[in-house]
Amino acid sequence: MASFVVSWLERQGWEVYKEVLCPHHRRVVDIYAVRGRESWAIEAKMSLNLRLLEQAQYWVQFANSVSIVVPSTKKHRRLLRFVLQLCNMLGIGLLVVKKDGTVVERLRPRMHRISRRPVLVEAQKHSTAGTNRRDHWTPLVDTIKNLQEYVHKNPGCSVVEACTSIPHHYKNNSSAINSLMKLIRAGKVEGVRLRYSFGVPVLEPVVA
After folding, report:
1. How many CA atoms lie within 13 A of 68 on its CB side?
2. pLDDT per residue over 47-96, tens digit each?
3. Domains, the chain, ranges and CATH?
4. What does each C-alpha distance from 112 to 38, 59, 61 come to in angstroms?
5. What pLDDT does residue 130 have?
6. By the number of CB atoms within 10 A of the CB, which of 76, 168, 171, 183 ranks highest?
7. Structural contact between residues 47 and 24, judged by C-beta atoms closer than 8 angstroms
8. Under a CB-based contact definition with an 8 Å cutoff, are residues 129 and 30 in contact?
9. CA nearest neighbour of 32 among 43, 47, 24, 23
């Protein structure tokens, strides 16, 4: 369902990011679209409930416009009048996706002033909206990807060399070394293993 909304937005000139992490907390929005100075956060769910409205309302502080999107079903059509009233009170828009993939904007969102936008990166454009929240982009995901690429290009490099050579999100190299070594030991960095050479921790790619 969310893919229809993404295509609908792109046809209108929006630059669409998916599974975007909010600036302050561990919340993720399904779709975050940008067009010029405008931003639009959209929560997509198969079920229409108060939890969906609460999730959307949270993003009012981080996007100029906020909407929810649900599929057009018999149950949702019965609730539509009441939901439209709630959305109107909250300033939240409502999108409905029909069975043929047509997106209908039943209620336009109100414009909001925001203090800041979330971090937007190229990788989020290639994510899939509405997926498991654990799959979204984070700064740690980028750091791990950089580490994996470095180790595969420089097998046998020391942990210190790798962590001081790659871009990472940690405050300093010492934090990066300690944190990434823990992740590698715990098997959280796929394709990279840790071993000791004359007492020095080194990294090697895992060959399948």
Report:
1. 27
2. 888 899 999 999 999 999 999 999 988 877 788 888 899 999 999 999 99
3. 2-131 (3.40.1350.10), 139-205 (1.10.10)
4. 10, 10, 8
5. 63
6. 168
7. no
8. yes
9. 43
Cβ proximity of 13 and 109 under 8 Å: no
15, 14, 32: which is closest to 23 by C-alpha?
32
Residue in this structure with the two tokens 């997926």, named with its chain if needed: 131
Name the one residue in this structure whose structure tokens are 């931003």. Answer: 39
Share of the chain above pLDDT 90, in %: 60
Unique residue bearing structure tokens 């893919």: 3
Say whether pTM exceeds 0.85: no
151 vs 199: CA distance, rounded Å: 19
Look up residue 41 and give its amino acid.
A
Per-residue model confidence as pLDDT tens digits over 113-152: 887 888 787 777 767 776 555 556 677 788 888 899 999 9
Cα(69)–Cα(76) distance, integer angstroms: 11
